[in-house]
Write a structure and sequence with these properties.
By secondary structure, the chain is an alpha+beta fold. The protein folds into five domains: 155 residues, Beta-Lactamase, CATH 3.30.450; 70 residues; 89 residues, Beta-Lactamase (2-Layer Sandwich); 71 residues, Helix Hairpins (Orthogonal Bundle); 150 residues, Histidine kinase-like ATPase, C-terminal domain (Heat Shock Protein 90), CATH 3.30.565.10. The chain has a five-stranded antiparallel beta sheet. Strands 7-6-10-9-8 form a five-stranded antiparallel beta sheet, sandwiched between helices. A hairpin with a 2-residue loop joins strand 4 and strand 5. Helix 11 packs antiparallel against helix 12, helix 12 runs parallel beside helix 17 and helix 13 crosses helix 15. The chain is elongated.
């Protein structure tokens, strides 16, 4: 038979199409099988890592098969595959496609290739026929941990029916294309290749952007083929990661705000004993300046008691507590509580509470109670003794009764002054004393105080003078408080100054403040006493002070009243040359 040119061309085209179809069939089916298997394996690895993370964070015992099987069923639905949890010894803990009663009959998975590879290389995969579910499956597995050790393997399997179906569809398309004309086959092949490559390029470019940290990138793939499903899975994965990262950032920011707002110091140590986290409050408590991260506790604060507390907490199961004193410029006492972190072996959480003010207040309270008790004991004893003696003297020596009555009156007056001073000091310190701040003429107040104390000054032969120039500005102060301050200072000058001496009230001012001083020419005060003169119950000469009726609270009241009016007190004295007590208040 003689064949025409068209027939020859047709036979040649047919031969070319047949060879092309055969080659294409062999190549495309293999390439599609390998490509889809790789993509599915990568997808399964991403999912199985999340499943392993859920297994790691689960609190279920490794013997609680029901809990593991329920978790496998739940994660199987979420992961769109067969989920299996296998203990490290090969026992199947749970399987999403095997019911709980049948788990006991499932053979050991210890020698399954994906499990062996996962235990050896931290991930494993294999593709084989499953006797359990009677399908060809792709298995991927990664280990999960408990207490820092590998407790078992989380395995995710997916049937390869999608790959088989895709290959079958491809072969049918190739066979159908072979029946068409060569031009149509080439055109359709070109269009299909272009369409497929475009989708793959889109998915690949989007995946690279996601891998670079751009979780806003989306493939926006449509359709139901594998590439579209992969694109949709990537979009879903990116959305989930974005949401999870957003939650983590919000939680991190919330914890940072909590730590920054705490008054207690918080220190987090890693398993190597180095500072992992420290809040700002801790920086103000410790003498170490700068960033504490990466430092050891001994570098931050060299303190033997702190080291003992940290060693006790890290070496034992129970928290350790103690109180340490840090020798900074202003020593601080810190209550330290250290406890081990449950989810980070070797890590420590240390909380520091500054109890410096609390300990100081406790010491002040003890000293105050002791001083008040001592001050009250003497006049009470004198009154009691005089009263007992008076009872006997009335019967035996009536003429001596007046002396004992005088003793009782003096000591009750002393008790009255002490109680009044205590009440005044209490009102000032508790801010119950309401001050009426106004413009006050210092000269008039000084003259009034001198006139009130004139009789007592005359009895000791003390000359009182007021030397306030005409140009002194009025003080911005409370009138009664300023009068009480001057009364205490002038009264002290009269009592403790030299007999037949003098005491002078002076005043002056600068641009913003008025300075008032009371000078005497008495015996003066030794320099070692000056820093403590304004403390409660502190006396240079306790016996002489009590004999003169002093309570030991006058200068403390002066200091608190002046500070309440926005001023400050000072004292200057030289032995045998007299003393000068001064204070400043704002100028009106």
């Amino acid at each position: 038979m003689k064949l025409g040119l068209r027939s020859k061309l047709f036979l040649v085209a047919l031969g070319l199409i047949t060879v092309s179809v055969a080659v294409a069939d062999a190549y495309l089916t293999g390439a599609l099988d390998a490509d889809m298997t790789v993509r599915i394996r990568k997808d399964l690895l991403v999912r199985v890592r999340l499943i392993a993370l859920a297994a790691t964070t689960s609190r279920a015992s490794l013997d609680a098969l029901r809990a593991w099987d329920e978790m496998a069923d739940e994660l199987g639905l979420l992961g769109e595959g067969r989920v299996t949890f296998i203990r490290a010894d090969g026992v199947v803990l749970g399987d999403s496609e095997v019911d709980l009663p049948s788990l006991a009959s499932v053979e050991s998975h210890a020698r399954r290739p994906e499990m062996v590879e996962a235990l050896a290389r931290r991930r494993g995969s294999s593709m084989r026929w499953s006797d359990t579910v009677r399908r060809r499956m792709l298995y991927v597995a990664v280990p999960f941990h408990r207490n820092g050790r590998v407790a078992g393997v989380a395995r995710l399997a997916k049937p390869l029916t999608e790959v088989d179906h895709a290959i079958g569809r491809l072969r049918r398309l190739v066979l159908l294309a072979s029946a068409l004309a060569l031009l149509v086959a080439i055109l359709m092949s070109s269009l299909a290749a272009h369409w497929l490559s475009k989708n793959v390029r889109t998915v690949t470019a989007t995946a690279r952007r996601m891998a670079g940290g751009d979780l806003d990138a989306r493939t926006r793939a449509v359709g139901r083929d594998e590439v579209a499903e992969l694109g949709q899975a990537l979009d879903q994965l990116a959305a989930n990661l974005r949401s999870a990262l957003g939650d983590l950032r919000a939680e991190r920011d919330r914890m940072a705000r909590v730590l920054d707002g705490m008054r207690e110091g918080v220190l987090l140590l890693d398993p190597d004993g180095r500072v992992q986290l420290a809040n700002p409050a801790l920086g103000g408590m410790l003498p170490f300046g700068g960033d504490l991260t990466g430092k050891t506790p001994l570098e931050v604060a060299r303190n033997a008691e702190l080291e003992r507390i940290l060693d006790a907490a890290s070496g034992g199961a129970e928290p350790a507590s103690g109180e340490v004193e840090l020798g900074t410029v202003e020593p601080r006492r810190l209550l330290v509580h250290a406890a081990r972190l449950q989810d980070e072996p070797g890590g420590l959480l240390v909380v520091f509470v500054d109890v410096t003010d609390l300990r100081r207040l406790e010491s002040l309270r003890r000293d105050f109670v002791a001083n008040v008790s001592h001050e009250l004991r003497t006049p009470i004893a004198a009154v009691r003794s005089a009263a007992e003696t008076l009872r006997r003297a009335i019967e035996t020596r009536p003429e001596a009764a007046a002396d004992f009555i005088d003793i009782i009156e003096r000591n009750t007056a002393r008790l009255h002054r002490l109680v009044e001073d205590l009440l005044d000091l209490s009102r000032i310190e508790s801010r119950e004393l309401r001050l009426t701040v106004e413009a006050v003429d210092v000269r008039a107040i000084a003259a009034h105080v001198v006139s009130l104390l004139g009789p007592s000054a005359e009895r000791r032969g003390v000359s009182l003078r007021v030397e306030v120039p005409d140009g002194v500005r009025p003080a911005r102060a409370d009138r009664r408080a300023l009068e009480q301050v001057l009364s205490n200072l002038v009264d002290n000058a009269v009592k403790y100054g030299a007999e037949n001496g003098s005491a002078t009230v002076r005043a002056g001012n600068d641009a913003t403040r008025v300075r008032v001083s009371v000078e005497d020419d008495g015996p003066g005060i030794d320099a070692r006493h000056l820093p403590r003169l304004f403390e409660r119950f502190y006396r240079v000469d306790a016996g002489r002070s009590r004999d003169l009726g002093g309570t030991g609270l006058g200068l403390a009241i002066v200091k608190h009243l002046v500070e309440a009016m926005g001023g400050s007190v000072a004292v200057e004295s030289t032995p045998e040359r007299g003393s000068t007590f001064s204070f400043t208040v704002p100028a009106a």
